[in-house]
Amino acid sequence: MMANSSKDISKFNPRRFFALGGISVVLCALLAPGSFMAPFAILTPLPLIISSLLYGRAKTFGLILISGGVLGLLSVELIRDISPLGYFLFSAIIAIALSEFIHREIAPIRGIVVTGIAALIFFATVFLYVDMTSEAGIKQLIIKEVIPSFNMEERLEEIKASGRTDTLQFEALLSKPDLMAEEIIKTIPTLLSVAVFLTLWINMFFALRLRRVLTPFSQGKRYTEKVLTNFKMPDQFVWLVIVLLTTYLGAEYEVTGLLSGSVGTVAQTGLFVLGIFYFFHGFGIYLYFLDAMKIYGFFRSFLVVTTVFMLSWGVAVIGLIDTFVDFKNLLNKKNQGE
């Protein structure tokens, strides 16, 4: 029965096909400034990936062109901002890349790493090109275009009204836009790296899960989302964590004159990238723990969402500690002992 249902879903249906494109456009539109649903925009590539898995590459490419055209008209005529179109194009490229790895039965982790590195190289190239070709440079562009959009004066008034004691530090930062621009530039590589790899992992996870549900298993090797939940960082990477952490602390506290601020920024970015993958490692252990405790249903979903949003750093630490302590083995021994 499941196989027949899956075959029916895989059969081309124009309404379902265009609905996937519409869902992707709606998810992309959620990225509007101030929207409390903006985090859901991270799923923009997912409907396009599902379209590729169900209906093939060629039809999905056409869907991307149609959806992009509709979103482009909305961006120009109604929103008056083309940034949603830019994000949609980025999401479309992510969808094409991830779906290709799934079609070719290439290891999902490899697909995430390769696509993530390619995306970061692209963004770095664009960043350097803009900085070198623009008359003002990236720093001045941030001072003139980005910082004013933060409405810093209004935020300062809100801080004063709240009675917080750090208003002097905030006023000092506000009076030095060049210093604020430098801090923003330092955080861009870290934030971008986290956003790229998190987007890739989440969309790959749900794509593999939905493929398992929607499409019948064919003969041959098939990856599922369990490959991601069972992911384990190689033990050797703990040494890289130590090196990067030492380098970052040395640059931050100026332990030696050989370590400049840019070296510290690179080390910080590297730590956050590794932290993302240790988070994935720890998340798999956390799910294994919930399984071992037989926690399912709504309470399980509540615990997962709460932990991811409030204790993500703790999940990453669990992944790192698992290099030395095999938590799954300990849980198995405990269950066998009971």
Descriptive labels:
globular; mainly alpha; 338 residues
Helix and strand topology:
Elements: H1 2-10, H2 14-29, H3 45-55, H4 57-79, H5 83-103, H6 108-133, H7 137-146, H8 152-162, H9 167-174, H10 177-214, H11 226-229, H12 237-252, H13 261-292, H14 297-310, H15 312-321, H16 327-337
Helix pairs in contact: 2-3, 2-4, 2-5, 3-4, 3-5, 3-10, 4-5, 5-6, 5-10, 6-10, 7-10, 8-9, 10-13, 12-13, 13-15, 13-16
What does this structure look like?
The structure is a single chain. The protein has a domain at 230-338. It has 16 helices and no strands. It has helices at 2-10, 14-29, 45-55, 57-79, 83-103, 108-133, 137-146, 152-162, 167-174, 177-214, 226-229, 237-252, 261-292, 297-310, 312-321, 327-337. Helix 2 packs across helix 4 (57-79). The protein starts with a helix and ends with a helix. The model has no long low-confidence stretch (mean pLDDT 83).
- Computed CA radius of gyration, to the nearest angstrom: 23 Å
* Overall strand count: 0
Give the helix proportion (percent range): over 70%
**Low-pLDDT runs:** none
Structural category is: mainly alpha
Largest sheet: none
Please report the distance between the alpha carbons of the first and last residues: 39 Å
